[in-house]
């Protein structure tokens, strides 16, 4: 089946979870600080020890190499990690604007960046710039599912709106299942209406070590 299926995925604070996200479906995740939301996303990405299996479009995680899995199921952590000197070095085939795909340049523009951002040093980036650029870096890997941890938490309202539109456009275009940790009820209500104005958007909460549908 197309989409992302969690089959008994659990971690040290969370009882095993069974959850299926259809291709292109957006599902929200909330819960108190420290409830274990980030740990669940990390468990799905197989970054920490975890139980269970995850299926992407019918393919088992255990049958893929970890780098392959993490490219196909892209995690946007709350705090992004950068390892090279410049922004462009973090994007596939994109050290310079000339070598950058038009799609990535378009995404950068949608988030308010001119092509010269590729030459910017990582050390000069503001928190919000890091968050927006981490999103472009993630999408440039063309993931088939997205795990978003407070993807817009550091952004002003205008930047937040632009990031939401980009994520929604990608979700619909790529038919990517999206599991989105968000504490912001207004964001969830905005996004659950969707760009196509259809109602939708299931929401779950982690409470007392269990994942439950939000009432
Ligand atoms: N490597 C670790 N070793 C020990 N405890 C950890 C580790 N990583 C996370 N924790 C703890 O596990 C709990 C859940 O962490 P997690 O990051 O999943 O919380 P969260 O639900 O995402 O919270 P927030 O909304 O504050 O980001 C926290 O109490 C955290 O301190």
Index terms:
215 residues, alpha/beta, Rossmann fold, six-stranded mixed β-sheet, four-stranded antiparallel β-sheet, 6 helices, 30% helix, 26% strand, binds adenosine-5'-triphosphate, AAA+_ATPase, ATP-binding
Contiguous low-pLDDT stretches (5 residues minimum) are none
Following the backbone from N to C, one meets helices and strands in this order, namely EEEHEEHEHHEHEHEE
N-to-C span: 27 Å
Proportion of β residues?
Answer: 25-35%
Looking at CATH, the homologous superfamily is P-loop containing nucleotide triphosphate hydrolases
Associated small molecules: adenosine-5'-triphosphate
Structural class: alpha/beta
Helix content: 25-40%
Tally of DSSP helical segments: 6
Radius of gyration: 17 Å
Strand neighbour order, sheet with most strands: 6-7-8-3-9-10
Largest sheet: 6 strands, mixed
Number of domains: 1
SS elements, strand count:
10
Question: CATH first level: which class?
Answer: Alpha Beta
CATH topology name: Rossmann fold
Overall mean pLDDT stands at 91
CATH arch. level architecture: 3-Layer(aba) Sandwich
3D shape: globular
Protein name: ABC-type iron transport system FetAB ATPase subunit
GO molecular function, one term: ATP binding
Domain ABC transporter: 4-207
Keywords: ATP-binding, Nucleotide-binding
